[in-house]
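Good day; I would like, with your permission, to put a structural problem before you. I would ask you to consider whether the tokens describe a fold that such a sequence might reasonably adopt. The full record is reproduced below for your convenience:
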Amino acid sequence: MAKNKPKPASNVVDIRQSAARAQEEMEYMAEIEAANIAWRNPLTHDRDLTYKLLKLTFEYPHLAAREIVPLLKSEHPKLDHQTITWMIKNAIRNGLVTTHINYPYPQGDLLTLELELLQTFPELEVAKVESMSELTTTKLGPKSRLSARRDVLLRLVRLAAGIIDRFLAARARDHGDESTVVGIGWGRTMFYLLRCLESERRPQYGPRVECMPILATGNTPQRQGLDGHNLATRLAEVYGGQAWPLQWPALPNNVDARGIRNSEFFTPMKAKMKDIRLVINSVSEVVDKGDAEGPWLSDDPLVNEALRRSDRWEHIRGRIGLWFYDENGFEIPLKYRQAMGIGLQRLKRIASEPDRICMTIAGGDPARVPAILGALRGRMITHLLTDEHTARALIAAEKARRGA
């Protein structure tokens, strides 16, 4: 009885090639069908909607088409992800979007400056530098310089908003229903950041995003609207989350501070502080060694003045919240008072752990260079957003110190 001969290998190859061609043809026909469906949709001829989709797609590249649909569903109920994909491809084909790389790079390239910052300060994970060439003009008066510094600060907070969006989106994608605790500082820089975040509609994560101030807000010497509690509440509203207040005095005396830390209300807040994944703050300089916004050091004005003239106070180079530090980032504790909140030591631990961010926005003011340097040397920053003049001053100061 004759044995069955195996089929030639060429037949197998032909079958596989035919299957591959059939698959390609099916995909091509599916794309054509999707394009026809999209073309019949009257939304595809909406020019305003096209530009809005391009803005969302290219300014927030982490958003997929399926994630954009809920953001615009209330205005355009018939919108779906296939239509969005087709409209974006069609816009690119029609020249509504162009990509241009400036090569060779101009002198003073910001990308090179960012890389040099990362090499000079290895503890940094991300460095973003904005141009500030307007301030090099000597004809600018004080008001014009102040306006230019404000403009660069507004550009920096837009960069910060993008980093926050991408971080929260990655957390929601990779960790599901696990909550993300965000700590925010206080002051004008954070105020500008919230204005930027509120100017665009952001993804709503619900109670998975929890926001809290990094410093207690009971008696902070800030104008209304710039305190941490107000800013944390607004940040939670931007992403549909919830806010946790720290309503204790920001800088109580030592006896009151011990009582607050031992209270039953402080324990859950302390647990939340340990879970913080993202810290957003700025650093401040101490120009006149007084920071004359209030009697922070002692209730007695005479003791207050004596402490400000002491050697301990003279070593202060900057502060985060109401925690002061020297040129190497070592905390300089106050003698009669204790700041209530996250603290510099916990801030350093957060910066040292993977998948956590300590982002500092500080630019437009050369007086902040010593404060930024101290925070960098103390390893309290993972993401630095600053201007080109400040970046060059930081690099020069650190190289001069190492050379000495």
